[in-house]
């Protein structure tokens, strides 16, 4: 496909069905601090809230990599097929805030070999999430062995 023929993606939006909508909104908007972009109400009890989460990326990992991440990040907790990850300024502080807001801490914050501090939590709407705090820039990280290996 030529560069000119490629579609232009402007946003990645993850849509989650939350049985307890109020608890999910309180957790992600109020406790985690994702700003509300829009909210809609329809017939009956139909409701949706769209929250901004900064820059979006899509991380595609093979099963071997997922197992390796689980081993480093969690002491054995396994990832679901889809897991959300949020970059934060203070992984330890945000973990405490979210635990107080009802999250179950699956793995406490710890420094990873790729120089980030990661924590794993079970959040409302049956979502497993990772909080990560980068300790070095992408430029610094890209100089490490193994990074950039997926470039084509």
UniProtKB/TrEMBL annotation:
Domain VOC: 10-134
InterPro entries: Glyas_Bleomycin-R_OHBP_Dase, Glyoxalase_6, VOC_core
PROSITE patterns for the chain: VOC (PS51819)
Superkingdom as given in the UniProt entry: Bacteria
Name assigned to this protein: Glyoxalase-like domain-containing protein
Organism the protein comes from: Agrococcus jejuensis
């Amino acid at each position: 496909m030529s560069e000119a023929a490629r579609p232009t993606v402007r946003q990645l939006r993850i849509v989650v069905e939350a049985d307890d909508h109020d608890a999910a909104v309180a957790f992600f908007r109020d406790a985690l601090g994702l700003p509300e972009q829009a909210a809609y109400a329809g017939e009956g009890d139909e409701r949706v809230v769209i929250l901004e989460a900064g820059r979006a990326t899509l991380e595609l990992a093979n099963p071997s990599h997922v197992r390796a991440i689980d081993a480093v990040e969690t002491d054995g907790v396994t990832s679901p097929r889809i897991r959300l990850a949020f970059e934060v300024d203070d992984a330890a502080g945000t973990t405490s805030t979210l635990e107080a807001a009802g999250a179950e801490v699956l793995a406490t914050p710890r420094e990873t070999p790729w120089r980030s501090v990661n924590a794993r939590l079970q959040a409302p709407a049956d979502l497993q999430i990772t909080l990560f705090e980068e300790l070095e820039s992408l430029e610094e990280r890209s100089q490490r062995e193994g990074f950039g290996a997926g470039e084509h």
